[in-house]
Write a structure and sequence with these properties.
The complex is a heterodimer of chains A (175) and B (199). Chain A has seven helices and no strands.
């Protein structure tokens, strides 16, 4: 048995990262790599990368990759430490901010923030799609992304059907 | 901001929220955003597109997982802290159990070419889901106080900065978010002044 994992240190480090994770937990993944792989030696590089891949392939919010890292490094207790750490500060802040904003929704400043941010939020979604698809080369891959885009935009085809179709095409080696 | 033509519904109870967010999260492979928009705005009709964009904007500038912040805020809006807890718990609990089970069996199948291929195909589709949802939501910009031209210019700038130049998101949000909010603030003030003169 290796030395017991310092769960408290794990928890407090993820508490800190939570408040830095503007744009989602994935934005602080480089720092998680620094701590979990380089500093604490809890995970190998391959385990680190597979944590993100597993969460991507499973249903639910992407933030769960944090729990997978904790699990691979230190079992269920590790998963509880990392997930609670990454969630507690940000959810508390979001809760307080949402109440503050909703109580003042008629203020011009609050309305200006919402109106000003709307096109930015939409652009960030385009950027996410771009970054996700530019990581993998190949025109078939791009074609599948574009086809999914048009179908989601213009039809009411069930999203699970599209994901399933992508999985089948990929498994057959077409993508 | 709300379009009068859209008839909105509301969840019956925090339990209703929990179930809805669990079902929603379980359909979200490679991100829950696209499913959340479809379920909350189109199937359940709990939010308009404008309201969805608003909570997403708040979720985006605050730290933490955007979609979890969205769940929390939507739940809070209907049933206070109980709703917030129910929605967030719905979003996380069952998916967490599943992802831990998948982690436990993943190691054996990770190198299988069909599994790797399937993951690649799902990744390509989930990129498309996000872009398609963005296109859908962009119709909400028609009622934006800044006008369509300014909205498009802003969106293009943000896209270039984040997707092509890979600038840090926090800075892009701070600088362009501030510029956009100040401009929107001025437009709102002008509009209000015009209305006052008209009275």
């Amino acid at each position: 048995m290796p030395a017991p994992v310092d769960l408290l240190a794990l928890f407090t480090h993820f508490l800190l990262l939570s408040l830095l994770a503007i744009g989602g937990a994935i934005t602080v993944a480089p720092d998680m790599h620094r701590v979990l792989v380089e500093q604490m030696g809890l995970l190998t590089d391959a385990q680190f990368n597979s944590s993100i891949a597993i969460a991507q392939a499973s249903p639910g919010p992407n933030v769960l990759f944090v729990a997978v890292m904790g699990y691979q490094g230190a079992g269920l207790a590790g998963a509880a430490a990392t997930l609670a750490g990454i969630m507690l500060p940000s959810t508390t802040l979001a809760f307080a901010a949402a109440r503050w904003g909703h109580a003042r929704r008629h203020w011009r400043g609050v309305q200006a923030f919402k109106a000003g941010m709307a096109p930015i939020v939409i652009a960030l979604m385009f950027a996410t799609g771009w970054i996700l698809s530019s990581g993998t080369p190949g025109w078939r891959h791009v074609l599948l992304t574009v086809a999914a885009t048009v179908v989601v935009w213009r039809t009411r085809v069930h999203l699970l059907f599209l994901i399933g179709l992508g999985a089948v095409l990929g498994a057959l080696g077409w993508v | 901001m709300t379009l009068p033509s859209e008839q909105l519904a509301r969840p019956a109870s925090p339990k209703d929220l929990f179930v809805a967010f669990t079902v929603l999260a379980l359909q979200g492979f490679g991100g829950v955003l696209a499913v959340a928009q479809r379920v909350l705005c189109e199937q359940k009709r709990w939010l308009t597109k404008e309201e969805f964009l608003e909570v997403l904007a708040v979720g985006q500038v605050l730290p933490g997982p955007n979609i979890c912040n969205v769940a929390l805020m939507v739940g809070d809006r209907f049933f206070g802290w109980r709703g917030a807890f129910a929605a967030l718990a719905g979003m996380m609990t069952v998916p967490l159990i599943i992802v831990l089970i998948v982690s436990a069996v993943y190691v054996e199948y990770a190198t299988h070419p069909a599994v790797a291929g399937a993951l690649k195909g799902m990744g390509a589709v989930s990129a498309g889901l996000i872009v398609g949802t963005a296109l859908k939501l962009s119709s909400a910009l028609r009622v934006n106080v800044m006008g369509m031209g300014v909205c498009l210019a802003l969106a293009l700038t943000v896209f270039v900065a984040v997707a092509l130049l890979r600038w840090p998101l926090a800075w892009v949000l701070l600088v362009l978010g501030l510029v956009a909010s100040i401009y929107a603030w001025k437009r709102l003030r002008t509009n209000n002044a015009a209305q006052d003169v008209g009275k």
